[in-house]
């Protein structure tokens, strides 16, 4: 017999709401920082304001590499907390299911840690490539300190790459388990099912480049 479920807004805890506020604050701060970085580059290019190259380079690097990882990490914390509470609420309210918005926010096909793991793997891969190329030149020039720093960075990048790969596999298994649990608990309209396949990073099928 098909289950008849009522769609309700499950009340999430203060921890989830707090994580949501952190996500909004991170988004706002990131937007301000990106706007300032772009403005500094444009102002310097047109000669309106003289901006030191070091500041420009640092702001561009932070915008391209640091902010996306931080935002996706904060989003993962919020999504994971809500995911745990929605699955817990299902045991207490078996004839109800979360709203479509709550499903998309916290129970999409993609595990919340998958985008973060992919971003770390890409960045650590780039770091491994760049440091691996630079290290032999530093050693050939006899730059011991630079070689030590580059070697340490290379080791850290390799460890991060291995850990990210392991995290991707664990998240994929957990995502499959979440989809199975969700299917057992709630029957969903096909339109909602399609929305749940959307990846946070926008590849469109719940997967990622290179998966």
Automatic annotation (TrEMBL):
* Cited InterPro entries: MFS_trans_sf
| UniProt entry tagged with the keyword Transmembrane | yes
UniProt keywords, alphabetically: Membrane, Transmembrane, Transmembrane helix
Transmembrane segments annotated in the record for this chain: 22-43, 55-80, 116-137, 143-164
UniProt-recorded name of the protein: Uncharacterized protein
């Amino acid at each position: 017999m098909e289950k008849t479920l009522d769609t309700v807004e499950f009340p999430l805890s203060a921890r989830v709401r707090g994580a949501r506020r952190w996500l909004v604050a991170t988004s706002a701060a990131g937007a301000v920082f990106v706007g300032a970085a772009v403005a500094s580059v444009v102002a310097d290019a047109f000669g309106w304001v003289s901006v030191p190259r070091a500041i420009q380079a640092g702001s561009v690097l932070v915008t391209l590499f640091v902010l996306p990882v931080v935002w996706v990490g904060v989003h993962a914390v919020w999504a994971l907390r809500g995911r745990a509470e929605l699955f817990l609420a299902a045991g207490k309210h078996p004839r109800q299911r979360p709203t479509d918005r709550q499903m998309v926010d916290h129970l999409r096909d993609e595990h919340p840690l998958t985008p973060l793991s992919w971003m770390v793997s890409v960045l650590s891969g780039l770091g491994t490539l760049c440091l691996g190329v630079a290290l032999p030149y530093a050693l050939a020039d006899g730059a011991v300190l630079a070689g030590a720093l580059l070697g340490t960075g290379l080791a850290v990048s390799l460890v991060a790459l291995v850990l990210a790969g392991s995290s991707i596999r664990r998240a994929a298994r957990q995502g499959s388990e979440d989809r199975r649990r969700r299917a057992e608990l709630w029957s969903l309209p096909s339109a909602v099912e399609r929305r749940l396949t959307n990846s946070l990073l926008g590849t469109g099928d719940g997967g990622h480049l290179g998966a």
